[in-house]
């Protein structure tokens, strides 16, 4: 049920965002650049808006956001419930899961 709600929320935001980018491209560019200031991605001169701005609200953007949000559902821990089996990387670069270290 949570995955379906996340799918609906992200899909709606992508549809609204894409529509706004078509109807109000300059306003959306300012909005996206303002969001970029928070993460400081605007400070890299080789990373211009023209390279990444149009990718916002695309199908690949939708897929990426869904993947991240759905993965975070699996990583949540609740008191009194089993710990999530989160993937971890050893110093040798081997990918394991947290519960692999439990004996």
From TrEMBL:
Membrane spanning segments where? 6-25
Looking up Pfam families in the UniProt record yields:
T4_deiodinase
Q: Name one process (GO BP) from the record.
A: hormone biosynthetic process
UniProt entry keywords in alphabetical sequence: Membrane, Oxidoreductase, Selenocysteine, Thyroid hormones biosynthesis, Transmembrane, Transmembrane helix
Catalysed reaction(s) here are:
3,3',5'-triiodo-L-thyronine sulfate + iodide + A + H(+) = L-thyroxine sulfate + AH2; 3-iodo-L-thyronine + iodide + A + H(+) = 3,3'-diiodo-L-thyronine + AH2; 3,3'-diiodo-L-thyronine sulfate + iodide + A + H(+) = 3,3',5'-triiodo-L-thyronine sulfate + AH2; 3,3'-diiodo-L-thyronine sulfate + iodide + A + H(+) = 3,3',5-triiodo-L-thyronine sulfate + AH2
What GO MF annotations does this protein's record show?
thyroxine 5'-deiodinase activity
What family, per the record? Answer: Belongs to the iodothyronine deiodinase family.
Protein task:
Responsible for the deiodination of T4 (3,5,3',5'-tetraiodothyronine).
This protein is called what? Answer: Iodothyronine deiodinase
């Amino acid at each position: 049920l949570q995955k379906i709600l996340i799918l609906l929320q992200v899909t709606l935001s992508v549809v609204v965002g894409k529509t706004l980018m078509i109807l109000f491209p300059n306003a959306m560019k300012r909005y996206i650049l303002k969001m970029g200031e928070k993460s400081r991605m605007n400070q890299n001169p080789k990373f211009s808006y023209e390279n990444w701005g149009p990718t916002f609200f695309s199908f690949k953007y939708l897929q990426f956001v869904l993947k991240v949000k759905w993965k975070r559902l699996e990583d949540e821990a609740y008191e009194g419930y089993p710990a999530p089996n989160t993937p971890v990387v050893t110093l040798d670069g081997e990918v394991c899961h947290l519960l692999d270290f439990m004996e």
